[in-house]
Design a protein that fits this description.
β2 and β3 form a beta hairpin. The protein folds into 2 domains: 385 residues, no CATH class; 102 residues, no CATH class. It has 554 residues and is α/β, with parallel strands linked by helices. Helix content is 60%, strand content 6%. The chain has a 7-stranded mixed beta sheet with strand order 4-3-2-1-5-7-6. α4 packs across α5, α5 runs parallel beside α7 and α21 runs antiparallel to α22.
Length: 554
């Protein structure tokens, strides 16, 4: 190890812990096609392939385009010299390999950006504790669940082990924090220009990864001069467009969805018109307080410090940055309280890197005894984070073991039956179908899995990889049809008559005994024909018979 690098070696500890446990936690959780793991990893993988094929992604809500680009790049790198069709076939045969590779790349990015952030702070301050404090928040992502679980899915993939926007945001927020600290350490306005341009570019990337990043933009818009605000905003817009070029054609749809989120009371644009349901909103804030007590305490300390500095008329540059950073975190948490999901807090949680540093730099860094106490707390935090990650790894392994055992059991017990998966069903074919979002865009999928079907529990439709099929036809072509998925799903009333065969810890399997789907559709078509022919009474009779079969008609 070179003498120049030796002081920076300590800043490899936390990134190494996070990188190693990212791999260990993913390994413990089992394949991505397990019931608790495939959403949304398979969507990003398949949409990455859509980019290679020159198609617009069919999943643009987040919008998440940079992650889709990364998935597409990984698929391309491992298939250089192959056509898009050949690449797609190879990916659809071994999707787990590509998802694991993307997971490792994301972990590597988190490793590098966490180290660079700490190294930058150390170079500017020559204070190892200050640098290590910027790395502590990333430890929380080792146990932050990547979706809000419900019984029986109480143990799910943590953010660091998933392939979804929040995993990429770990690295993006680290870079955002570095730009923020470059502004903090800038001695003159002219020194800010390179950082402002970088900040705008990184912020555009952050918004393109996920719109939960937007509240962080309040920080540069407050602390920068008017001239730099304009430069930042121009670069931000250009960066966002650059990172979302593949979805420019669906900008109106994306904008409409964002407007609905803001102007409707429910989560994710649902509910009646209005800003929020006050009771649910404050209840969600209560959940945030409960889940992240330690972070909330530090947020409260920051606000108390700012108030104290204001009262004592000692408000300075450091206090301004503490106040604005705390405000950015509060705003981000407030947005999530309206659209709850603990993983949505990732951008705000990442900002604690800067807040921890600023609080320390404002006070403890000037007192040797306080520095020792903070140093001990940093060491305890690293050890505690490692222990929590390992404990969670054991829980993941236990859940994955049960899911895999149940999957293997039912496929042996009901060998010869055709398995039709629905949401939260384990299996590679079901995961690929969910990732494709029933688009019918891939002949390669149908060629590989011609007898694979999926049941969409929201539209009450069955599909293969080409398009819609009737459940009646599926039953006539196979010795038996097994519906596999979420153990608590209720099929009635519906056109399907099912018998519960087995209920596992996470999934259940049902035997499809009868279906009136085709009859309902034929009656509905006949009703339309009769109505157009002028026989309204007979049309109403047929339509009533169709509706009585409990099939959602067009």
């Amino acid at each position: 190890m070179s003498k120049a690098f030796r002081p920076y070696a300590a800043f490899l500890i936390v990134p190494s812990i996070v990188f190693i446990f990212s791999i260990l936690l993913k390994s413990a959780a089992g394949p991505y096609w397990l019931a608790s793991n495939f959403d949304p990893a398979y969507q990003y993988l398949v949409n990455g392939l859509r980019l290679l094929k020159g198609l617009v992604p069919n999943h643009t809500d987040h919008p998440g385009t940079p992650l889709q680009m990364l998935c597409g790049a990984v698929c391309w790198v491992f298939n250089i010299g192959h056509s898009v069709s050949q690449t797609a076939t190879r990916v659809f045969i071994s999707p787990e390999f590509y998802l694991h590779t993307v997971c490792v790349v994301l972990a590597g990015l988190a490793f590098c950006t966490s180290f660079l952030l700490a190294a930058y702070v150390y170079r500017k301050t020559n204070d190892g504790i200050a640098a290590l404090l910027t790395q502590l928040p990333v430890l929380s992502f080792l146990i932050l669940k990547s979706w809000d679980p419900y019984a029986p899915f109480s143990t799910v993939l943590p953010v660091v082990a998933n392939v979804f926007p929040e995993t990429l945001l770990i690295s993006v927020v680290n870079l955002f924090n570095m730009c923020l600290l470059k502004i903090f350490f800038a001695k003159a306005s002219k020194d800010e220009y390179p950082a402002v341009v970088s900040w705008g570019f990184i912020s555009g990337l952050g918004v393109a990864v996920k719109i939960t990043f937007i509240p962080l933009l309040v920080i540069p818009w407050i602390i920068l001069s008017w001239k730099n605000k304009i430069i930042f905003t121009i670069v931000l817009a250009a960066s966002f467009i650059l990172w979302t070029l593949p979805i420019v054609s669906v900008y109106p749809t994306l904008w409409h969805w964002v407007v609905n989120i803001v102007t409707h009371k429910g989560s994710l644009g649902l509910g009646g018109a209005g800003l929020m349901e006050k009771h649910e909103y404050f209840m969600n804030w209560g959940n945030i307080f409960h889940e992240h007590k330690i972070l909330i305490i530090f947020l409260f300390l920051a606000m108390v410090l700012c108030f104290g500095q204001l009262v004592m008329k000692k408000w300075g540059r450091e206090t301004s940055f503490i106040c604005v950073t705390a405000f950015g975190i509060i705003l981000q948490f407030a947005a999530v309280a309206k659209n709850p999901g603990m993983h949505y807090l990732s951008p705000g949680m990442g900002l604690f890197s800067v807040l921890f540093f600023l609080l320390y730099w404002q006070g403890a860094s000037h007192h040797p005894w306080a520095k020792r106490i903070v140093g001990i707390l940093v060491l305890v935090s690293i050890l505690l984070g490692t222990w929590q990650a390992n404990a969670y790894r054991l829980k993941l392994a236990d859940a994955a073991k049960d899911m895999l055992a149940f999957y293997q059991h039912i496929h042996e017990e009901y060998k010869g039956f055709n398995f039709v998966g629905f949401y939260r069903s384990s299996g590679q074919e079901a995961a690929l179908s969910f990732g494709d979002q029933y688009s019918g865009s891939w002949d390669e999928l149908f060629k590989l899995y011609p007898d694979s079907y999926i049941f969409n529990r929201w539209t009450i439709r069955m599909r293969d990889f080409r398009g819609r099929v009737f459940s009646n036809d599926v039953m006539s072509q196979h010795a038996g049809v097994i519906l596999q998925g979420d153990g608590d799903y209720d099929f009635g009333p519906s056109p399907y008559t099912v018998e519960l065969l087995e209920k596992g810890r996470f999934e259940s399997v049902f035997l499809l005994k009868n279906t009136t789907e085709k009859q309902a559709v034929m009656l509905h078509i006949a009703a339309i024909y009769l109505s157009n022919s002028g026989d309204s009474l007979k049309a109403l009779e047929y339509d009533a018979e169709a509706k009585a079969l409990h099939y959602p008609l067009p």
